[in-house]
Amino acid sequence: MKHKVDLRRGGFTVVEVLLAIMIMGMMFTSITQLMTAAKNARDSIHNMQETQLAGPAVLDMLERDLRGIFTTGLPRSTWLKVTDRVVGGLDADRIDFITTTDSLIARIEGQEYPKRSDLNEVGYMLRPNPRNDEFLEVYRREDFGIDDEPLQGGEYTFLSDQVKGFDIEVYSQDGPELDPLDEWNSGNDDEELTGLPAAVKLSITIELKPRIERESLDPSSFRKRTVTYSRWVRFPEGLRFAAGQFPRLAVPPGPTSPTDPAGAGEGGAAGEGTAETGSGGGGDREGTKSGQGLTFTSQGQSDPK
Q: What is the Cα–Cα distance from 233 to 5, expressed in whole angstroms?
Protein backbone atom coordinates (compact mmCIF):
# COMPACT_ATOMS: atom_id res chain seq x y z
CA MET A 1 0.00 0.00 0.00
CA LYS A 2 1.47 3.29 -1.08
CA HIS A 3 1.24 6.49 1.03
CA LYS A 4 0.82 9.90 -0.54
CA VAL A 5 3.46 12.47 0.39
CA ASP A 6 2.25 16.05 1.10
CA LEU A 7 4.75 18.35 -0.61
CA ARG A 8 3.36 21.53 1.08
CA ARG A 9 5.66 23.02 3.79
CA GLY A 10 4.83 25.55 6.55
CA GLY A 11 6.39 29.12 6.38
CA PHE A 12 5.81 32.90 6.33
CA THR A 13 4.50 34.77 3.40
CA VAL A 14 6.23 37.83 1.96
CA VAL A 15 3.54 40.07 3.41
CA GLU A 16 4.07 38.68 6.90
CA VAL A 17 7.83 39.16 6.68
CA LEU A 18 7.48 42.75 5.49
CA LEU A 19 4.99 43.49 8.26
CA ALA A 20 7.36 42.09 10.92
CA ILE A 21 10.25 44.17 9.55
CA MET A 22 8.12 47.31 9.60
CA ILE A 23 7.09 46.71 13.23
CA MET A 24 10.69 46.10 14.30
CA GLY A 25 11.83 49.24 12.47
CA MET A 26 9.22 51.33 14.28
CA MET A 27 10.36 49.90 17.61
CA PHE A 28 14.03 50.64 16.93
CA THR A 29 13.15 54.18 15.77
CA SER A 30 11.23 54.86 18.97
CA ILE A 31 14.04 53.49 21.14
CA THR A 32 16.63 55.59 19.27
CA GLN A 33 14.55 58.75 19.70
CA LEU A 34 14.18 58.09 23.42
CA MET A 35 17.91 57.51 23.83
CA THR A 36 18.75 60.66 21.84
CA ALA A 37 16.35 62.76 23.90
CA ALA A 38 17.79 61.39 27.15
CA LYS A 39 21.37 62.07 25.96
CA ASN A 40 20.51 65.63 24.90
CA ALA A 41 18.81 66.27 28.23
CA ARG A 42 21.88 64.94 30.05
CA ASP A 43 24.19 67.17 27.99
CA SER A 44 21.96 70.22 28.51
CA ILE A 45 21.99 69.70 32.28
CA HIS A 46 25.75 69.19 32.18
CA ASN A 47 26.22 72.42 30.20
CA MET A 48 24.01 74.37 32.58
CA GLN A 49 25.79 73.06 35.64
CA GLU A 50 29.22 73.66 34.10
CA THR A 51 28.27 77.20 33.14
CA GLN A 52 26.75 77.94 36.52
CA LEU A 53 29.92 76.68 38.21
CA ALA A 54 32.56 78.15 35.89
CA GLY A 55 31.60 81.82 36.11
CA PRO A 56 30.94 82.05 39.85
CA ALA A 57 33.99 79.88 40.62
CA VAL A 58 36.33 82.30 38.81
CA LEU A 59 34.72 85.32 40.46
CA ASP A 60 34.82 83.68 43.90
CA MET A 61 38.54 83.03 43.54
CA LEU A 62 39.22 86.56 42.28
CA GLU A 63 37.13 88.15 45.04
CA ARG A 64 38.92 86.10 47.71
CA ASP A 65 42.27 87.31 46.39
CA LEU A 66 41.09 90.93 46.27
CA ARG A 67 39.74 90.75 49.83
CA GLY A 68 43.24 89.84 50.97
CA ILE A 69 45.04 92.55 49.01
CA PHE A 70 48.32 93.64 50.64
CA THR A 71 49.63 97.23 50.54
CA THR A 72 51.73 97.76 53.68
CA GLY A 73 55.17 99.22 52.97
CA LEU A 74 54.74 99.03 49.18
CA PRO A 75 54.73 101.89 46.66
CA ARG A 76 51.25 102.96 45.61
CA SER A 77 52.04 102.07 42.02
CA THR A 78 52.20 98.38 42.98
CA TRP A 79 48.97 98.13 44.96
CA LEU A 80 46.63 97.39 42.06
CA LYS A 81 46.78 97.52 38.29
CA VAL A 82 43.89 97.11 35.84
CA THR A 83 44.64 96.95 32.11
CA ASP A 84 41.97 97.40 29.44
CA ARG A 85 42.47 94.71 26.77
CA VAL A 86 40.56 93.36 23.77
CA VAL A 87 41.37 89.91 22.36
CA GLY A 88 39.66 88.67 19.20
CA GLY A 89 37.02 91.38 19.49
CA LEU A 90 36.11 90.31 23.03
CA ASP A 91 36.73 92.09 26.34
CA ALA A 92 39.78 90.54 27.99
CA ASP A 93 40.77 92.92 30.80
CA ARG A 94 43.65 92.08 33.12
CA ILE A 95 44.14 92.72 36.85
CA ASP A 96 47.32 92.36 38.96
CA PHE A 97 48.01 92.92 42.67
CA ILE A 98 49.61 91.41 45.80
CA THR A 99 47.49 89.34 48.17
CA THR A 100 47.76 87.61 51.53
CA THR A 101 46.00 84.52 50.16
CA ASP A 102 48.14 81.44 50.65
CA SER A 103 49.84 80.31 47.47
CA LEU A 104 47.96 77.64 45.54
CA ILE A 105 51.06 76.41 43.72
CA ALA A 106 53.47 74.61 46.03
CA ARG A 107 57.22 75.01 45.48
CA ILE A 108 59.36 71.93 45.99
CA GLU A 109 63.09 72.46 46.47
CA GLY A 110 65.25 69.35 46.71
CA GLN A 111 63.98 66.81 49.23
CA GLU A 112 62.20 69.37 51.38
CA TYR A 113 58.48 69.59 51.95
CA PRO A 114 56.45 71.77 49.56
CA LYS A 115 56.70 75.44 50.48
CA ARG A 116 53.84 77.92 50.41
CA SER A 117 53.96 81.66 50.88
CA ASP A 118 51.60 83.92 52.84
CA LEU A 119 52.24 86.80 50.41
CA ASN A 120 51.96 86.26 46.68
CA GLU A 121 51.77 88.24 43.47
CA VAL A 122 48.48 87.41 41.77
CA GLY A 123 46.90 88.32 38.46
CA TYR A 124 44.07 87.26 36.16
CA MET A 125 44.40 87.39 32.38
CA LEU A 126 42.83 85.90 29.25
CA ARG A 127 44.09 84.56 25.94
CA PRO A 128 42.42 83.13 22.79
CA ASN A 129 41.22 79.54 22.96
CA PRO A 130 43.51 77.58 20.60
CA ARG A 131 40.76 75.01 19.90
CA ASN A 132 37.91 77.45 19.27
CA ASP A 133 38.53 81.08 18.34
CA GLU A 134 35.02 82.02 19.52
CA PHE A 135 36.03 81.53 23.14
CA LEU A 136 38.71 82.82 25.51
CA GLU A 137 40.68 81.06 28.20
CA VAL A 138 41.12 82.62 31.64
CA TYR A 139 44.27 82.02 33.71
CA ARG A 140 45.36 82.89 37.25
CA ARG A 141 48.93 84.18 37.62
CA GLU A 142 50.82 83.48 40.84
CA ASP A 143 54.36 84.40 41.80
CA PHE A 144 55.89 83.09 45.02
CA GLY A 145 56.46 85.95 47.49
CA ILE A 146 57.19 89.52 46.40
CA ASP A 147 60.01 90.50 44.08
CA ASP A 148 61.17 93.69 42.37
CA GLU A 149 58.42 93.40 39.72
CA PRO A 150 55.26 92.49 41.64
CA LEU A 151 52.98 92.99 38.63
CA GLN A 152 54.85 90.63 36.31
CA GLY A 153 56.22 87.10 36.18
CA GLY A 154 54.97 83.97 37.90
CA GLU A 155 53.23 80.77 36.86
CA TYR A 156 49.82 80.56 35.19
CA THR A 157 47.03 78.17 36.17
CA PHE A 158 44.19 77.38 33.75
CA LEU A 159 40.69 78.13 35.07
CA SER A 160 38.12 77.99 32.24
CA ASP A 161 37.89 77.91 28.44
CA GLN A 162 34.24 78.97 27.99
CA VAL A 163 34.73 82.71 28.46
CA LYS A 164 33.15 85.13 26.00
CA GLY A 165 34.32 88.27 27.80
CA PHE A 166 35.89 89.59 31.00
CA ASP A 167 35.28 93.25 31.86
CA ILE A 168 36.60 95.24 34.85
CA GLU A 169 35.15 98.65 35.75
CA VAL A 170 37.03 100.79 38.28
CA TYR A 171 35.39 103.47 40.45
CA SER A 172 37.72 106.02 42.01
CA GLN A 173 35.09 107.46 44.38
CA ASP A 174 31.90 106.44 46.13
CA GLY A 175 28.63 107.91 45.02
CA PRO A 176 25.79 107.49 42.55
CA GLU A 177 26.06 108.11 38.81
CA LEU A 178 29.85 107.97 38.66
CA ASP A 179 31.49 107.09 35.37
CA PRO A 180 33.65 103.96 35.60
CA LEU A 181 37.27 103.87 34.51
CA ASP A 182 38.58 101.25 32.10
CA GLU A 183 42.14 101.29 33.48
CA TRP A 184 43.84 101.87 36.82
CA ASN A 185 47.50 102.58 37.50
CA SER A 186 48.22 102.41 33.78
CA GLY A 187 51.53 104.28 34.09
CA ASN A 188 50.34 107.75 33.09
CA ASP A 189 51.83 109.31 36.27
CA ASP A 190 48.38 110.40 37.50
CA GLU A 191 48.49 110.26 41.30
CA GLU A 192 44.69 110.13 41.51
CA LEU A 193 44.64 106.87 39.54
CA THR A 194 47.15 105.00 41.70
CA GLY A 195 46.83 103.15 44.98
CA LEU A 196 43.43 101.56 45.56
CA PRO A 197 40.12 102.69 44.05
CA ALA A 198 36.86 102.85 45.94
CA ALA A 199 35.43 99.79 44.21
CA VAL A 200 35.76 97.52 41.18
CA LYS A 201 33.02 95.72 39.25
CA LEU A 202 33.98 92.35 37.79
CA SER A 203 31.91 90.86 34.95
CA ILE A 204 32.54 87.54 33.21
CA THR A 205 30.47 86.18 30.32
CA ILE A 206 30.17 82.43 29.80
CA GLU A 207 28.56 80.79 26.76
CA LEU A 208 26.99 77.35 26.66
CA LYS A 209 28.67 75.01 24.19
CA PRO A 210 28.32 71.32 23.26
CA ARG A 211 29.79 68.91 25.76
CA ILE A 212 31.71 67.13 22.99
CA GLU A 213 32.90 68.73 19.76
CA ARG A 214 30.31 68.31 17.00
CA GLU A 215 28.17 66.16 19.27
CA SER A 216 24.87 67.63 18.16
CA LEU A 217 23.79 69.30 14.95
CA ASP A 218 20.97 71.14 16.68
CA PRO A 219 21.79 74.87 16.27
CA SER A 220 19.08 75.91 18.74
CA SER A 221 19.28 79.18 20.57
CA PHE A 222 19.55 77.30 23.86
CA ARG A 223 23.03 76.08 22.96
CA LYS A 224 24.03 79.62 21.93
CA ARG A 225 22.85 81.25 25.15
CA THR A 226 25.33 83.36 27.10
CA VAL A 227 25.27 84.15 30.80
CA THR A 228 27.01 87.14 32.42
CA TYR A 229 27.97 87.07 36.10
CA SER A 230 28.92 90.27 37.94
CA ARG A 231 30.56 90.89 41.28
CA TRP A 232 31.29 94.11 43.20
CA VAL A 233 34.35 94.42 45.43
CA ARG A 234 34.64 97.51 47.61
CA PHE A 235 37.86 98.51 49.35
CA PRO A 236 37.57 99.96 52.88
CA GLU A 237 38.54 103.59 53.21
CA GLY A 238 41.18 102.75 55.81
CA LEU A 239 42.86 100.37 53.40
CA ARG A 240 43.17 103.11 50.80
CA PHE A 241 45.19 105.35 53.17
CA ALA A 242 48.85 105.85 52.42
CA ALA A 243 51.36 104.47 54.89
CA GLY A 244 51.56 106.60 58.04
CA GLN A 245 48.11 108.18 57.64
CA PHE A 246 46.22 105.67 59.76
CA PRO A 247 46.41 105.04 63.56
CA ARG A 248 48.57 102.28 64.93
CA LEU A 249 49.21 100.70 68.34
CA ALA A 250 52.54 101.35 70.05
CA VAL A 251 54.22 100.64 73.39
CA PRO A 252 53.70 103.57 75.81
CA PRO A 253 56.71 105.54 77.08
CA GLY A 254 58.06 104.94 80.58
CA PRO A 255 57.16 107.10 83.60
CA THR A 256 58.76 110.55 83.89
CA SER A 257 61.82 110.49 86.13
CA PRO A 258 62.09 113.30 88.76
CA THR A 259 65.80 113.58 88.06
CA ASP A 260 65.36 113.84 84.28
CA PRO A 261 66.95 117.16 83.29
CA ALA A 262 64.69 117.43 80.24
CA GLY A 263 61.61 117.03 82.41
CA ALA A 264 59.91 114.96 79.76
CA GLY A 265 61.36 111.47 80.14
CA GLU A 266 61.32 109.20 77.16
CA GLY A 267 58.33 111.01 75.74
CA GLY A 268 60.32 114.24 75.32
CA ALA A 269 63.33 112.44 73.92
CA ALA A 270 61.22 110.70 71.29
CA GLY A 271 59.50 113.89 70.24
CA GLU A 272 56.02 112.59 71.15
CA GLY A 273 53.67 114.00 73.77
CA THR A 274 51.89 111.86 76.36
CA ALA A 275 48.68 112.24 78.31
CA GLU A 276 50.65 112.50 81.58
CA THR A 277 52.77 115.47 80.47
CA GLY A 278 50.29 117.03 78.04
CA SER A 279 53.15 118.12 75.79
CA GLY A 280 52.99 117.88 72.01
CA GLY A 281 55.56 116.25 69.77
CA GLY A 282 57.67 118.06 67.25
CA GLY A 283 57.63 117.96 63.49
CA ASP A 284 54.68 116.23 61.85
CA ARG A 285 53.91 114.00 64.80
CA GLU A 286 50.70 114.38 66.73
CA GLY A 287 50.03 113.94 70.43
CA THR A 288 49.55 110.49 71.92
CA LYS A 289 47.08 109.14 74.41
CA SER A 290 48.16 106.48 76.88
CA GLY A 291 45.74 104.13 78.52
CA GLN A 292 45.60 100.53 79.75
CA GLY A 293 49.24 99.90 78.97
CA LEU A 294 49.15 100.92 75.28
CA THR A 295 49.73 104.15 73.42
CA PHE A 296 47.61 105.02 70.38
CA THR A 297 49.75 107.07 68.04
CA SER A 298 49.18 108.61 64.64
CA GLN A 299 51.98 109.60 62.32
CA GLY A 300 51.70 111.93 59.35
CA GLN A 301 54.19 110.74 56.79
CA SER A 302 54.31 111.49 53.12
CA ASP A 303 52.80 109.04 50.65
CA PRO A 304 55.21 106.41 49.34
CA LYS A 305 55.70 106.70 45.62
A: 98
